[in-house]
Amino acid sequence: MVDVIELAAQTREARGKQVKAVRAEGNVPAVLYGHGVDSQSLSVGQRNLTKVFGVAGSNKMVALSIDDGKPYNVMIHDVQTDSRNGQIIHADFYKVKMNEKIKAEIPLHIVGESTAVYKLEGSLMQSLSTVEVEALPANLPENIEVDISVLDDFDKAIHVSDLKIPGNVELLTEVSELIAKVEPPRSDEEMEELEAPVVDELAEGEEGEVGESTDDESSDKPEADKE
């Protein structure tokens, strides 16, 4: 039996600049929309939402109860985070219809070991971390495994077409896209070039010209920039 992921929310009256007060109280402003519901403004506890999103991501069902009412089957469709500390500052909940297919990004999970990495000292290069699929909500996989043990030399690669997709899930990502391959180790000559110090050589008289140009550019800056 699959464990139900539960999350509680409250109706939110605050709008616009007032949402600052919502966040100051340790809550996250959110919106619910989707099948059979009018768009609703919500408030969700910061800690609870962070914990639930860490488990559910954007491809697992969440039982969302509003003001202690009957739970809705929703997916966390989108979150916005603070670039400074990574905290969630807004969330979108999408109410799903269990008998209607939806699209979702499914994480790729690397398994196995590549002999081209641990024996030939190559570097694993992963180009994709998710693939887009379409399926009924209950059929969405938690992740899709990528077995890198097939990468036993530098000529081999894994593409989307190599993935094992459940029969009740439709793959939407282009099958020719590269997922992973192993790059050979750099030669001593390449490493020396990378480690060589970069030397800036200015032609005679160039420094003075650069200085003059800088002064001219600064004088043309808008007044707003000067402030």
Describe the fold and architecture.
The structure is a single chain. The chain is α+β, with helices and mostly antiparallel strands. The protein has two domains: 6-97, Ribosomal Protein L25, Chain P, CATH 2.40.240.10; 103-188, RNA Polymerase Alpha Subunit, Chain A, domain 2, CATH 2.170.120. Helices cover 21% and strands 34% of the residues. The chain has six helices and 13 strands. The protein has helices at 19-24, 46-56, 115-118, 188-195, 206-219, 223-226, and strands at 6-11, 27-34, 40-45, 62-66, 72-81, 88-95, 102-111, 123-126, 130-135, 144-147, 157-159, 170-171, 178-183. It has a six-stranded mixed barrel with strand order 1-3-2-6-5-4. A hairpin with a 6-residue loop joins strand 5 and strand 6 (88-95). The longest helix has 14 residues, at 206-219. The protein is globular, with a radius of gyration of 26 Å. The termini are far apart. The model is unreliable at 208-227 (pLDDT under 50).
Entry summary:
About 20% of the residues lie in helices and about 35% in strands. By secondary structure, it is an alpha+beta fold.
List keywords for this structure.
alpha+beta, Ribosomal Protein L25, Chain P, RNA Polymerase Alpha Subunit, Chain A, domain 2, globular, four-stranded mixed β-sheet, 227 residues, single chain, six-stranded mixed barrel, 13 strands, 2 domains
Question: Which SSEs are present, and which pair or pack?
Answer:
Blueprint (H helix, E strand, L loop, with lengths): L5 E6 L7 H6 L2 E8 L5 E6 H11 L5 E5 L5 E10 L6 E8 L6 E10 L3 H4 L4 E4 L3 E6 L8 E4 L9 E3 L10 E2 L6 E6 L4 H8 L10 H14 L3 H4 L1
Parallel strand pairs: 1-4, 2-6, 7-10
Antiparallel strand pairs: 1-3, 2-3, 4-5, 5-6, 7-9, 8-13, 9-12, 11-13
